[in-house]
Amino acid sequence: MAWVFLGLAGLLEVVWAFAMKQSHGFTRLVPSLITLVTMIASFALLSASMRVLPLGTAYAIWTGIGALGAFAVGIIALGEPATAPRLIAAGLILSGLTLMKLSS
């Protein structure tokens, strides 16, 4: 269950990052509330996963899921550029996450 909790925590991190962008500096109520609620849920699930998983592994994978997810949402939903250097950087993050998971 720890890995499931960690995966859900990472997905919620993507949601709160996107909602935070949409809140325009917490000046819009609904995106601000979504940010706060999903942030709390993400931290709670991360905390639950850390009961079993090592700190370094859990935190690295949580932030990696968030980083890659936010990167993808930025490209797909916000029209951010998908340049070769950015895609290579995302690939390196994914490689690091894979190695972290395999070493656990």
From TrEMBL:
SUPFAM superfamilies registered for this protein in UniProt: Multidrug resistance efflux transporter EmrE
The record's Gene Ontology cellular component field reads:
plasma membrane
* Highest taxon of source: Bacteria
Q: Name one Pfam family in it.
A: Multi_Drug_Res
What kind of membrane protein is this, topologically? Multi-pass membrane protein
One MF annotation (Gene Ontology) recorded for this entry: transmembrane transporter activity
Single biological process term from Gene Ontology: xenobiotic detoxification by transmembrane export across the plasma membrane
Keyword annotations for this protein? Answer: Cell membrane, Membrane, Transmembrane, Transmembrane helix, Transport
- Span-the-membrane segments of this chain are 27-46, 58-78, 84-102
Q: Is Cell membrane there in the keyword field?
A: yes
Where does the UniProt annotation locate this protein? Cell membrane
Q: Record's family?
A: Belongs to the drug/metabolite transporter (DMT) superfamily. Small multidrug resistance (SMR) (TC 2.A.7.1) family. Gdx/SugE subfamily.
Query: What is the name listed in the Swiss-Prot or TrEMBL entry for this protein?
Result: Guanidinium exporter
- The protein's organism comes out as Gemmobacter megaterium
